[in-house]
Amino acid sequence: MRTLHLVALAAWRESLEQWSWRSFMVTLMLNQVAGPIIGLLVWTAVEAGSAEIRAYFLVLLAVQLLTVSYEDHTLCASIFGGTISNRMLLPQPVIVGFIGSNLALRFWHSMFGIPVVVVVGALADVNLHPGPVAAAVPAVLLAGTLRFIFTSTLAMTSFWTERGAALVSLGNTVIVLLGGIAAPLFLLPTGLGAVGRLLPFWPMLGMPAEIAAGALTPADLALAYAAQLVWLILAGAVAVVVWRRGLRVFTAVGG
């Protein structure tokens, strides 16, 4: 409970700080919504009249805003700049501050992005059903957690290399390409779609959108949640190992 309280305080503090550069936050939000909107335009032209496609990309737009991660600008920069040593002196887990930053960024992306989601939904004439949307809520929470762990692990490579930020950017690009923005996995040939569902990128982004759009059968839904949980456990284990080994080589120099 103490850790949750510290995370809440960190998120509140970071959200107040981020409000001071809200115009830049709007720019970041617009950059994040561009991909899903382009995907919506392209795939509705390919699959004309498909309500499922319209619902999928609208939810995908919301999921993108709710799971966005910028660990290349937070964790990575803190490691490379040496300021993470200040966080190590605080009587709390180092990760608390970065989780707070992540949650605050997602909050403002969602707040500034709500009008975009509403307008896109109205223009695309999307009708979502409460049942599938409710079933997708846990998937969104798990997707956000998995994406944060994934990008944080890539950011931790800054303990060894100056290219940590580039690796995080590359990871985010792969999520876009293989996670369901470039192409919905349920529209791909059976073999390619099955391979895509085995990778960790679909559970980070496309999976919640497919659930909310009603594109998964109950059996597929159970398998999807199982895959998401497995990847979450594996990603968490890898992150812990990378963090511990990174601390062994970390050196901060100040003057």
Give a description of the structure:
- It is built from eleven helices and no strands.
- Helix 7 (130-155) packs antiparallel against helix 10.
- The mean pLDDT is 91.
- It is globular and about 55 Å long.
- The longest helix has 32 residues, at 218-249.
- It has helices at residues 2-19, 22-46, 51-67, 75-81, 84-88, 95-123, 130-155, 164-178, 190-198, 206-212, 218-249.
- With 255 residues, it is mainly alpha-helical.
- Helix content is 75%, strand content 0%.
Spell out the key features of this protein.
11 helices; 0% strand; mainly alpha; single chain; 255 residues
How would the blueprint of this fold be written?
Blueprint: H1 2-19, H2 22-46, H3 51-67, H4 75-81, H5 84-88, H6 95-123, H7 130-155, H8 164-178, H9 190-198, H10 206-212, H11 218-249
Helix pairs in contact: 1-6, 2-3, 2-6, 3-6, 3-10, 7-8, 7-10, 7-11
Gross morphology: globular
The number of domains is 1
Main sheet specs: none
Oligomer designation = single chain
Number of helices: 11
Kindly, what is the distance between the CA atoms of the first and last residues, rounded to a whole number of angstroms?
38 Å
Which strand-content bin applies to the residues?
under 5%
Summarize it.
This protein is mainly alpha-helical and 255 residues long.
